[in-house]
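Quick one:
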Amino acid sequence: MRYFLALFFCGSITIFLACHSTNSETLVLDKQQYTFDGANRCDTTKNAGVDVSVSYILLKDDTEGGRKINDSLRRLAVNSIVGWLDSATVADNPDVQTDLAKAASQFATDYETMRKDMGSLGGCWEVKTTADTVHIGVKALTIKYETFAYTGGAHPNSNMSFYTFNRETGQMLTLTDMVSDTTALLTVVEKAFRKQQALLPQNNLEEQGYFLHDGRFFLPGNVGMSSKGMVFYYNPYEIAAYAIGPIQLTIPYEQLNGILRDNWL
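Output:
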């Protein structure tokens, strides 16, 4: 009888721990889709109008941290449109910063204003945003937003942004939240950058055509976590010409010992 009770107790503990681990690491996502359907939407026969599409995700997580993360994810979805609006217009219409439909409508209004001022525009304007998870850990979550936009000019623009959150508090983490030594990190990332770009340590990056801050190598604006390591992403024009395209580096976690704060792994 005592053997049975001990076996039952141990089995119950095992089941509890397994369920607790699953709930901590598994995240259920709720996919969201917004598509502009106003009167000014793109007409391919006339090659005029706007096309706005935002595909993003929310968490099916009713904890305080989950709710705060969702608030941030909604704002980021709206900002993917707001970033292409005229700044004066945004200042005059602050509600576009919190409402996808209003932001898209303002984008269409800006298009019409420009079309009337210019007489004609060479095609439809477009903003297309997609979001996806990059890393789902027990303590941290990294999500990327990718935006493709065309508002006239020689070529469209694309941008990738990474955001990492503390799953418990919902706080958006900064680089210094994730790493303890940014100076050491800079050295590691530059070494990986040179290796990927086939550059020797003695090669001057500016002479090779790269854009530097005060002549010094710098970390990108977008950093996140992945299953294989820490991701460092330079968007077009951030450190190199548009023709080179984006540059992504993934530094294995074992190379970040003493640099990465262990609590996010």
